[in-house]
Amino acid sequence: MLKSKLPNVGMTIFSQMSALANQYDAINLSQGFPSFDCDPYLKQQVNHYVNNGFNQYAPMPGMPELQQAIADLVSNQYELNISAAEQVTVTSGATEAIFVAIQTLVHPGDEVIIFDPAYDSYEPAIDLAGGKCVHLSLSSPDYRINWAEVERCMTSRTTAIIINSPHNPTGSILGEEDIIALKDLLSRYDIHIISDEVYEHIVFDGQVHHSVLRYPELAEKSFVTSSFGKTFHVTGWKIGYCVTPPDLTAEFRKIHQYVTFCTLAPMQKALADMMNKNPQHIPGLGAFYQHKRDVFCEHIKDSQFKLLPCHGTYFQLLDYSAISDLPDTEFCNWLTKVHKVATIPLSVFYQTPPDSRVIRVCFAKDDETLKQAAEILCQV
Ligand SMILES: Cc1ncc(COP(=O)(O)O)c(C=O)c1O
Predict the structure, then answer these.
(1) Residue 8 included in any domain
(2) 198: Cβ below 6 Å to ligand 1?
């Protein structure tokens, strides 16, 4: 009998809820993907490159023009100078970048601190590296990191901390005080950061995204991961990247080359063209999704659901304690089957869930779908 390497892992809740949404013909606000299409120019360029011979392996670290476009973007946005060739690696989604960063850092017995509620790919990757995942909870009600608790959990085996801002599933973002705390921690402990910044361009209400890349003391110890899926509405392409200093990049690529070796060539070329031809897309993304958040929130404000603060990402948390005492997974199943709106229970993002009644809604949907879903939720 095969001995499972991930005995506690089953089908993800995202696949389960999407299947249930299909089965009950429900509006699917569960899985995090846009219901609208990408820019036609991107598709046109993919077609162009597929039809003009770009169908073989891309270079292992990425197409040079895409590496350069990423380096330019990052350098402008976060006011630092990075080398496209030595610091940018294109990966098959941020998921691969996170997986490879974890394999690069974690040796058997090492501990990695993550914050619950946490994106679901971190822990299995740590387990596969033979590491130990140390779960700390973000503090309610605003889902902030308790840095005193982080300090208490540091041991001689702590090798890394994984942070995620803007944060899936809560929509919280790191503030300046978090950066100060992180700098202080790094000045005293020899650890690395994996900074999952896939929603870096989706920040609301004029707030600033505190990328670790803005701070040289943090950047020199960090693997920063991002996703073109989120930025250009192409989650199905699974293209992302990792930015890290040259010495860490060299180690990262040793593993990346044996995980996927390289990423889809025509898509990389098309994304590079898109970034060069349409530099306005990225700065407009925050306002684009803020509008969607506001449409949804405006239409649901008279319901029994309580809206929790959302500063970024395309997720909104809803507290349903005024409606039901059901545990969140049962509530989500009921909502899908009876009211035909699929959402995600917050508890699945925790090792030890708190006793709360909160669900996650994805608002990366066209306005009509958001209004229709909100109208239904107002009847619940
Ligand atoms: C927080 C977070 N990190 C990483 C990823 C993975 O991104 P990708 O689809 O590019 O692999 C996601 C996707 O939902 C995410 O929400």
Answers:
(1) no
(2) yes
Confidence at residue 187, expressed as pLDDT on a 0 to 100 scale: 97
Question: Which pairs from 52-56 meet CB under 8 Å and 24+ separation?
Answer: 54/265, 54/266, 54/269, 55/265, 55/266, 56/265
Does ligand 1 come within 6 angstroms of the Cβ of 91?
Answer: no
Tell me, yes or no, whether 188 and 320 share the same domain: no
* Cα 327 to ligand 1 centroid, rounded to whole Å: 26
- Residue 24 domain-assigned? yes
**Ligand 1 pocket test, candidate residues 198, 224, 289, most atoms within 8 A of CB:** 198
Name the 3-class secondary structure at 257: helix
Q: What are the DSSP E strand ranges found in 48-118?
A: 88-91, 111-116
Looking at residue 11, its pLDDT comes to: 84
The residue range of the domain holding 111 is 40-277
Instruction: Answer yes or no: is 18 within a domain.
Output: yes
pLDDT, mean of residues 61-75? 98
Give the end of a domain, one of 255, 277, 299. 277
- In contact, 88 and 71? CB cutoff 8 Å: yes
Condensed to tens digits (0 to 9), the pLDDT of residues 174-206 reads 999 999 999 999 999 999 999 999 999 999 999
pLDDT digits (tens, 9 = 90+) for 158-169: 999 999 999 999
Mean of the per-residue pLDDT values of the chain:
97
Same domain for 309 and 249: no
Alpha-carbon span 272 to 56, nearest angstrom: 17
Ligand 1 pocket mutation, candidates 17, 102, 119, criterion most atoms within 8 A of CB:
119
In the reported structure, the alpha carbon of residue 31 is separated from the centroid of ligand 1 by a whole-number distance in angstroms of 11
Q: Is the pLDDT of residue 140 over 90?
A: no
For residue 303, the CA-to-ligand 1 centroid distance in Å is 30
